[in-house]
Amino acid sequence: WRYISTYIDPFEPNIADVLSTVVSNITIVKNATGQTYWPLYNINTIGNMQIGRAYQMYSTASHELVVAGLAVQPENTPISLPAGWSYLGYLRQSPAPVDAMMSSISTYINIMKNSLGQTYWPLFGINTIGNMNPGEGYQVSMSSQHNYTYPANSSSFQTAALNIADPA
To answer: I need a labelling partner for 96 at 20 to 30 A (CA). Which of 5, 59, 113, 126 fits?
Structure first.
């Protein structure tokens, strides 16, 4: 299982079309509300992919997914995050630290997880996710509904490690 997303607004947005080149490796795909794309049984209750949303996918092999479309401008693409659990897509074209990306809404985030189970838990200062990455999605629990907009792709984010020595 892994969470996937895209910063591309697909020319053909139906999830079956977006995943058509890798469908032989896909068992099932789900969105946050439980709708599914299950190719073996020709079930597709997801329909069109939504920009800013992530999808949970079970695949039988690793593969590269190429999405044809136009790149979204993250700073012009607000995402509504409901109270409770939802799946959040990553709309930027380069990795950036999750704490920097989520700083404007961190007080409303209960917990956030990636496909590996790594967490960003602002209340306790826990961040095992590190960077958010293009193509990845995240499961997030919000204390209340909030609209969120990513910084522009031109915004640069860096982290630095400090070496703190014991006083002698």
So the answer is: 59
